[in-house]
Design brief:
With 149 residues, this protein is an alpha/beta fold. It is 36% helix and 19% strand.
């Protein structure tokens, strides 16, 4: 399987949607804090529904704490600044799909730490997809590839 990591997420409904997605596919979600919102059941309940009780969430106090806990797993960063399309990337069991803040992505130090950077090809002139949509697309492709092996 793969895992999902959210770097300092700042929109609760997007985070809840990803948590629900992960619950349904039995994926672990790492939350790299600080978040841009108060962490509470109320902020997640609408998008996450009753699935939130079944998802594996690992909260990390910082980027450094996250890096120290992942035991050499490969970090695959989804970013609009990558040259490799997610459909051309070879995912492996144990990969961690890292998604940045909706408002700002990730800082350069996080870009440099990532083992790989991938993107979703968009129509010219458009900036990005909703982070939950991007997560579902990329995770779906990763799971497809891993299952095919």
């Amino acid at each position: 399987m793969i895992e999902i990591a959210l770097y300092q997420p700042d929109i609760p409904p997007n985070t809840a949607t990803i948590l629900r997605f992960a619950a349904c596919l039995d994926l672990t979600v790492h939350i790299i804090e600080p978040t841009g919102f108060l962490w509470s059941e109320k902020s997640f309940r609408r998008a996450g529904m009753d699935y939130l009780d079944t998802v594996r969430i690992v909260r990390h106090a910082s980027w450094q704490a996250f890096c120290g806990s992942i035991s050499g797993k490969r970090i695959v960063l989804a970013t609009t600044g990558a040259d490799t399309a997610y459909t051309d990337f070879s995912f492996a069991k144990g990969d961690i799909l890292l998604l940045g803040r909706e408002s700002a992505g990730v800082p350069e130090a996080v870009h440099q730490h990532a083992d790989a950077r991938i993107s979703i090809a968009l129509k010219p002139g458009l900036r990005s997809l909703n982070v939950a949509m991007a997560c579902a697309m990329i995770a779906g492709e990763a799971l497809r590839q891993i299952a095919a092996r």
